Amino acid sequence: MANRQAQFEALVQAYSADLYRFAFWLCRSRTVAEDLVQETYLRAWRALANLRSGDSAKGWLLTILRNEHARLRQRQRHEAPLDEPEMLEEIPDDKPPDDEAWLLRRALARLPEEYREPLLLQVIGGFSAQEIGKIIDASAPAVLTRLFRARQKLRAELIRESGADAGAGRKTS
């Protein structure tokens, strides 16, 4: 039992920040993200024997978190319809439009979830397309396509948000 607890504590210490960041980007709410991380750890504790190696722990935990988020969204759909996407709730509109970090967060929040999720797993989690595919249950080529489209949509959204011309600053031959 002591070895199991030590293993679990090491997981919590190593991955709490990454899990919280990913949960926050999924739900855009601090309290819901904290609850998702807690649920993730509860399920991880119960299934700790299923963890094959420490090398796969981060992906395993992110998969649990992603599934918990899907369960939460499913429950919310049955409880009440959403008028506005929940991901935009905590991104205020009153920030200065020249704030690059705000523009990026806003643009990411506006990406459809099917594109935002793999992009965040790659950028925040540092996962390869193959690893992301295992987490989101998609093939590596499908993940690469989603990542490509996510970057295209993100670029277009940033251009739209900043009001910049798409061709500004580019050299033409």
Q: Could you describe the 3D structure shown?
A:
With 173 residues, this protein is an all-alpha fold. The protein has two domains: 1-90, Orthogonal Bundle (Rna Polymerase Sigma Factor, Chain: A); 92-165, Orthogonal Bundle (Arc Repressor Mutant, subunit A). Helix content is 69%, strand content 0%. It has seven helices and no strands. It has helices at residues 2-27, 30-46, 57-79, 100-110, 113-123, 129-136, 140-162. Helix 1 packs across helix 3 (57-79) and helix 4 packs across helix 7. The radius of gyration is 18 Å and the shape is globular. The protein starts with a helix and ends in an 11-residue tail after the last helix. Mean pLDDT is 80; it is low at 81-92 and 165-173.
Q: Given the C-alpha coordinates, what overall shape results? A: globular
Query: Uncertain segments of ≥5 residues (pLDDT<50)?
Result: 81-92, 165-173
Number of strands: 0
Helices and strands, in N-to-C order? HHHHHHH
Helicity, in percent?
55-70%
Radius of gyration: 18 Å
For the report, how would you describe the main beta sheet? none
- CATH class assignment of the largest domain: Mainly Alpha
Structural class: mainly alpha
- In percent terms, what proportion of residues is strand? under 5%
Number of helices: 7
Write out the CATH superfamily name of the largest domain: RNA polymerase sigma factor, region 2, helix turn helix motif
What is the CATH T-level topology of the largest domain? Rna Polymerase Sigma Factor, Chain: A
- The overall number of domains is 2
C-alpha termini separation: 68 Å
